[in-house]
Amino acid sequence: SRSYTVTLLPGDGIGPEVISVAKNTLQLVASLEGIEFKFKEMPVGGSALDLTGVPLPEETLSAAKDSDAVLLGAIGGYKWDNNEKHLKPETGLLQLRAGLKVFANLRPATVLPQLVDASTLKKEVADGVDLMVVRELTGGIYFGKPRGFSTNENGEEIGFNTEVYATHEIDRIARVAFETAKKRRGKLCSVDKANVLEASMLWRKRVTELASKYPDVELSHMYVDNAAMQLVRNPKQFDTIVTNNIFGDILSDEASMITGSIGMLPSASLGESGPGLFEPIHGSAPDIAGQDKANPLATVLSAAMLLKYGLGEEKAAQRIEAAVLDTLDRGYRTGDIYSAGLKLVGCKEMGEEVLKSI
Amino acid sequence: SRSYTVTLLPGDGIGPEVISVAKNTLQLVASLEGIEFKFKEMPVGGSALDLTGVPLPEETLSAAKDSDAVLLGAIGGYKWDNNEKHLKPETGLLQLRAGLKVFANLRPATVLPQLVDASTLKKEVADGVDLMVVRELTGGIYFGKPRGFSTNENGEEIGFNTEVYATHEIDRIARVAFETAKKRRGKLCSVDKANVLEASMLWRKRVTELASKYPDVELSHMYVDNAAMQLVRNPKQFDTIVTNNIFGDILSDEASMITGSIGMLPSASLGESGPGLFEPIHGSAPDIAGQDKANPLATVLSAAMLLKYGLGEEKAAQRIEAAVLDTLDRGYRTGDIYSAGLKLVGCKEMGEEVLKSI
Ligand SMILES: CC(C)[C@H](C(=O)O)[C@@H](O)C(=O)O
Ligand SMILES: CC(C)[C@H](C(=O)O)[C@@H](O)C(=O)O
User: Fold this and answer.
1) What is the pLDDT of residues B275-325, one digit of tens each?
2) Most A-contacting residue of B162, B221, B337 (CB-CB within 10 A), to test interface
3) Which of B334, B323, B322 is nearest to B261 (CA)?
4) Are the Cβ atoms of B229 and A253 closer than 8 angstroms?
5) Which of A22, A233, B117, B298 is 20 to 30 A from residue A163's alpha carbon, by CA?
6) How far is the CA of A98 from the centre of ligand 1 (A)?
7) Which ranges carry the Isopropylmalate dehydrogenase-like domain (chains A, B) (predicted)?
C-alpha cells in the first residue's frame, strides 16, 4: 500500500479543532483507498512561541521538510500581536513558506450553489463564481532586502521594504499559473501595477513572453486597483489570476470574502519539488477557539488539495470533495454558513457528518 | 468680490467633456455667490504627450502652482499604454501630484439612497455606506528610491521598488485623517501590513502615538488583507480609513466600486499649503470618449470639493451638492447609473439639468 508521512501543524486558536477533523477524514479515505498515513504533529506559531520561545522551531521545519506533505491549521492571536517581529506567530509562517520553498500559492474562490446566499453580493453576481488566485509566495516585498529601520538625511526615522522580483521567480510562478489556467477554463489574468512600478513592468514583460508557450491559454493584464474593483463588479469574468505576493494577499482575501463563506476555502502552497503546504485560508479566530464552533470544512478541503496536488491521490481527493458537498446537501451547517431551516452543528459534529458522507 | 484662478486640466478621453460641464457649474454658482473665477486650460497626460512630447509640460505645472486650485478631468488611453515609463500619461499625473506636494488624497465613497440599486452588493449591505479613504499620495512605493532594473548575483534581471515612509510623512497624513474623522463620525481605521512590513510597523507606531492628541477620535488598526475583505463583508463599519499610497490605491478603488456608481465619486488631493488638486476617481474611459455618454457628476462633485477644501467656499460647494441630489431626484441618469423608468440623458444634458437645479 502507498504510504505517506504527513506533518500536522495545528497552530493556534481554532487550528487544533479543525486539524483534528481533517486528520480523521484523511484516515478514513486512506483506509478506503489503500493508503497508509503516518502523522506527525508539531508546534508552530503562537503555541510554538509559548512552548519553545520561537514561532518556528527547527524540529518543526525539519519534520515538515522530511514529510510528503504538510497540513496547517491556523496561526496567530491577540496574545502575541504586540510581539517584536522575530517573535510574531506570522514570522513562523513566513519562515515555514520560505523553508519549504513553496513559491506558488493556489487559492480557489468558489461560490457553491448551496451557499450562494452567504455572499454579500447580489445572487446574480455571486452565483457561479469559480476563480483561482495563483499568488507568488516566497518573494516580493515580503522577503525583499534591504528592509528595516534607519535614519534619513534629515535625521528622521524611516521604515523601509523592497519589492523585488528576479526573472526566474516570475517565470516559475507564471508557469504554474498558465498550467493551472490550462486545466481550468483557459483564461489567465495577470495583475500588476506596471503603470507605476518597475518590479511590475518586469513581471508583465516576462509573463507576456511566456504566453507564447501556452497558445491555448488566453492571457490578459490588469492593474491591481482595477482588479480590486472588478472582483466586486463582476467576479465571474475571472478564471485564473496570477499576481505577486502582496497583491495576492489582498486580492485573494477579497475574492474569498466575495464567496461569503471563507470558512469553506482551502489553499495549497507548492514548490518545485519537496512537500507542499496546505491550509485553510481563514485565520485562527481566537474569539471562538475551543468552543467547538469552527467550520472544519476549509481544512477538510485543504486535506483534499493535499491529496490531489501534494500526493497525486486524485481519487481520494475527489472522495473528500464529494463528501463535503453531500454533507451540505444533507443540510448540515456550522454557524458561519448557517441559515434558517438548516441543521446547525458544531465543528466535531460537522466532521462526523463528513465521515458519514464518505 | 472674491476672485480665484482655477487651472483646468481636461486631459484625455472623456476628460474634456466632463470638465466642460464642471466649468459651467462653477461659473453659475460663482455668479450667485459673488465669486469671480479666472480659468486657465492646460494640457496634461496623453494629450500633452501628443502636443508637446511630455506628459506634464513645465507650463502646465507652473500654471497649476500659480493658481488657487486645479481641476483635472482624466488621463490615459490605449494609445499610450505601451509607452516607456517617462512617456506614460500616468507619469504626468504622478509628477503633478509630486509637483503640487498634495500628500493627502481624500476619496469619499458614499452610497446615495437614489443609487443604492447600482451596487452589486445586497441592498441591506450597501444602503447607508458613507466612508472616506484618506490615502497618502506623494510617498511610499510610488516614489521610493532606489527603484529600477538591475542584475542580481546570478546575472539575472531584476525589477525593484522601495516602500519607504519617514516619520513626518506619516504624521502629516495621520493628522489630516484624524481631523477628517473628527468632522465625520469620529472613527478612524488605519490600514497597514504591520505583521510583515517594517514600513507598516513605523506607520502603526506613529499613528498610534498621534492618537493621544485626538481624544475624540476612536482609532483602530486593520491589516490590508482584512480591510479588503471587510469592505465587501460590511462596508458600513467604516467611517474614515487612512492608509499608504499603494494600499490606498487598491482599497479606495474597491470602496468606490462598492457604491456601484464610480461615475459619481469625486476626490480631493491636498498639501500643507498651495493649490489642491481635484479630480473624479473614474478613468478616461476611451471607449466612450467624444460620444456625449460620460457621467459628469463625479467631476461636478469634484468642483464642489474644490470650493469646499480648496477655496473655503463652503456655501457654494453646498449649492452644487444639493443641485446634484436634486437632479437625481428629478430622475435624470446617464447610462452608467440608469435604471428602467428614469430619464436617460447624455453628458451635456445632465450638465444642463444640474444648472437648472442650481
Ligand atoms: C499571516 C500573514 C503573514 C499571511 C500573509 O500575509 O501572507 C496571511 O495574511 C496569509 O495570507 O496567509
Ligand atoms: C493612474 C494611476 C497612476 C493612479 C494611481 O495609481 O495613483 C490612479 O490609479 C489613481 O488612483 O489615481
Assistant:
1) 999 999 999 999 999 999 999 999 999 999 999 999 999 999 999 999 999
2) B162
3) B334
4) yes
5) A233
6) 13
7) 5-354
